[in-house]
């Protein structure tokens, strides 16, 4: 007899916490009973104590996390004791792995899948790393591969191919500590680009093959989906904040004004009225000043206040940094032999993805179809919480809403033990 395949999905409210280098966002949601998820409340706060995805000051980060979660709790009208953490940092590592078990009898049952997923194979985990996220790709029975659900089928040996995402143990431990200082437990970690993919890619896009490029303030993360599954993730420690810093240093303007210039007047592509793009920053600076953009200068002297610059000067500052990000991403995919797996579609998301001309440059450099991703899939979003900068938070809500009760894959990567003896064991592993 075929076993029932009805899934018991988590129904109680749950919280996700997206810890970025520019902002921290907490969202509280619940499954709506119809396969979707509804947003109950959210809170957002400027980041502190985190740089390029890594904890730089624990107390400052803990304080901001507390304020963000409290704002979300007030908005939702409920309290939370644990969160799913979305993070681009931790120098993530992904690999496609396989493990197998011999069946206890001829028919595959749920306990066989549980036993298979519970097997620990530390050979796939680099030293000083720990699992963050695990996604099954396919099951196998003996010599038959490509099985989506083996329950009720007959065979001798059951195997599974899966994508394993790991993060540096020290990085994840410090994020857990920042939450613990607010009396919050960490349910699990999710890579930010994977979560953004759930929010911004349709099922067909994930099935045919797509690359999510999640550009944040301090990091740029990528996730490759193929046949509906996650097959690769990576993160580089360069994001939109580096562009802002370049503008501030070269133009000698305050960081806040440099950020405004980037967001309002900045463009990756030059817009010279002659149609000739400047070859270098040196050439653009030589062109001198114009009345296109007025910028404030550092200091308070009237002689340097209210300068005007050629609009193309911003392009000449911004473009080299964006090209560097593209080259680094492509190099990472090449080394992982994933450049052909990526398919022909790139989707840009994240707070820094809204830079004018970014998609056009990506399309030109990568020779791929490039689009801007907008989060979809949950009810209750307002205009302030539905932009590309919230894609990872929204995708994390979708992920958690689909987790089965006692899911063996989720148990494999839960980050905090629950019983006193398990806590002692975890402490011994981390400290001895």
Number of DSSP strands? 19
Could you tell me the mean pLDDT? Answer: 84
Shape: globular
Largest sheet, if any? 6 strands, mixed
**Helix/strand class:** alpha/beta
What is the CATH C-level name of the domain at 93-167? Alpha Beta
What portion of residues is helical?
Answer: 25-40%
CATH architecture of the domain at 93-167: 2-Layer Sandwich
Radius of gyration using CA atoms only: 23 Å
Question: Reading side by side through the largest sheet, how are the strands ordered?
Answer: 11-6-1-2-3-19
Given as residue ranges, the uncertain stretches (5+ residues, pLDDT < 50) are 1-6, 272-291, 300-304, 416-423
How far apart are the first and last residues' alpha carbons, in Å? 49 Å
Query: Under CATH, the topology of the domain at 93-167 is which?
Result: Dna Ligase, domain 1
Beta-strand content: 25-35%
Work out the helix count.
13
Task: Describe what you observe in this structure.
By secondary structure, the chain is α/β, with parallel strands linked by helices. The protein has a domain of 75 residues: Dna Ligase, domain 1, CATH 3.30.1490.110. Helix content is 34%, strand content 28%. It contains 13 helices and 19 strands. Strands 11-6-1-2-3-19 form a six-stranded mixed β-sheet, with helices on both faces. Strands 14-13-12-17-18 form a five-stranded mixed β-sheet, with helices on both faces. A four-stranded antiparallel β-sheet has the order 7-10-8-9. Helix 4 packs across helix 11, helix 6 packs across helix 7 and helix 6 runs antiparallel to helix 9. The longest helix has 25 residues. The N terminus is likely disordered.
């Amino acid at each position: 007899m075929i076993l029932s395949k009805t899934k018991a999905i988590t129904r109680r409210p749950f919280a996700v916490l997206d810890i970025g280098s520019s902002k921290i966002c907490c969202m509280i949601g619940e499954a709506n009973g119809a396969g979707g998820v509804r947003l109950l409340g959210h809170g957002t706060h400027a980041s502190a104590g985190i740089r390029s995805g890594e904890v730089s000051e624990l107390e400052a980060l803990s304080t901001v996390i507390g304020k963000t979660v409290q704002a979300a709790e007030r908005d939702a009208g409920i309290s939370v004791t644990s969160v799913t953490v979305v993070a681009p940092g931790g120098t993530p590592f992904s690999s496609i792995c396989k493990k197998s078990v011999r069946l206890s009898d001829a028919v595959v049952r749920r306990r066989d899948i549980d036993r298979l997923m519970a097997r620990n194979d530390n050979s796939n985990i680099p030293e000083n790393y720990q699992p963050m996220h695990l996604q099954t790709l396919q099951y196998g029975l003996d010599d038959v591969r490509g099985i989506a659900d083996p329950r009720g089928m007959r065979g001798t040996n059951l195997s599974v191919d899966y994508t394993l995402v790991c993060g540096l143990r020290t990085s994840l431990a410090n994020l857990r500590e920042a939450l613990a200082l607010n009396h919050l437990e960490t349910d699990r970690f999710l890579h930010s680009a994977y979560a953004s993919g759930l929010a911004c890619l349709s099922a067909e896009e994930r099935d045919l093959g797509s690359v999510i490029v999640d550009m944040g303030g301090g990091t740029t993360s990528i996730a490759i989906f193929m046949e509906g599954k996650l097959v690769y993730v990576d993160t580089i420690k360069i994001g939109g904040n580096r562009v802002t810093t370049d503008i501030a240093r070269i133009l000698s303007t305050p960081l806040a004004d440099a950020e405004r210039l980037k967001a309002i007047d900045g463009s990756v592509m030059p817009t010279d009225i002659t149609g000739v793009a400047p070859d270098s920053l040196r050439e653009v600076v030589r062109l001198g000043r114009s009345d296109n953009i007025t910028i404030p200068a550092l200091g308070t002297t009237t002689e340097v206040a209210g300068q005007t610059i050629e609009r193309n000067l911003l392009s000449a500052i911004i473009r080299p940094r964006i090209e560097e990000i593209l080259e680094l991403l492509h190099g990472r995919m090449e080394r992982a032999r994933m450049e052909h797996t990526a398919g022909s579609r790139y989707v840009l998301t994240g707070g820094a993805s809204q830079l004018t001309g970014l998609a056009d440059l990506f399309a030109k450099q990568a020779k791929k179809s490039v689009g801007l991703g907008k989060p979809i899939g949950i009810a209750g979003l307002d205009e302030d919480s539905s932009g590309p900068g919230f894609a990872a938070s929204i995708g994390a809500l979708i992920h958690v809403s689909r987790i089965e009760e006692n899911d063996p894959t989720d148990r494999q990567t839960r980050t905090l033990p629950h019983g006193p003896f398990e806590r002692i064991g975890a402490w011994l592993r981390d400290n001895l």
